[in-house]
Design goal:
about 140 residues; alpha+beta; five-stranded antiparallel β-sheet; 2 helices
């Protein structure tokens, strides 16, 4: 039972960490530039949690140079030719990322949080079961012969 709780706990922590990493990848840079890019193409993948859409986005920086990058997976459909809000550092246009609202990170954090609650419940039930078995052993009277 402890191994099951540990496995669920490790999975939960990884989902929360992954979700928070994805979240930081869609926030605009504090001192960055914003521009509107265009979705060039989209690939679809099923990661056992539902469909995910991965967009290839192109944008032109403030110097007039065109750049292309791959956006993080999104649970919401993304279509070729649609606009995408891009944040980038003018000194490093390769840092660009899509800040269009596509909250994949929320699902990962939610799954991780649910897993943490499940792991806690498994541990609590295991502790209760262990305590009851110890009480039963302590309360048992020896057989007389």
């Amino acid at each position: 039972m402890i191994l099951a709780a540990l496995a669920v706990g490790v999975f939960s922590v990884s989902r929360v960490a992954s979700g928070l990493t994805d979240r930081s990848a869609i926030e605009p840079f504090a001192n960055g530039a914003m521009t509107t890019g265009t979705v060039l193409s989209v690939s679809e993948a099923d990661y056992k949690t539902g469909a995910s859409y991965i967009a290839i986005i192109t944008f032109t920086d403030s110097s007039g140079i065109q750049h292309t990058f791959t956006a993080p997976a999104s649970p919401q459909p993304v279509y070729a030719s649609e606009p995408a809000q891009v944040s980038y550092l003018p000194t490093d246009p390769l840092s660009a990322h899509d800040v269009t609202a596509r909250p994949a990170w929320q699902a990962e954090v939610g799954q991780g949080s649910l897993g943490a609650v499940t792991a806690t419940a498994i541990l609590a039930l295991g502790a209760l079961r262990w305590r009851r078995s110890r009480s039963a052993v302590a309360g048992a009277e020896p057989e007389s012969r």
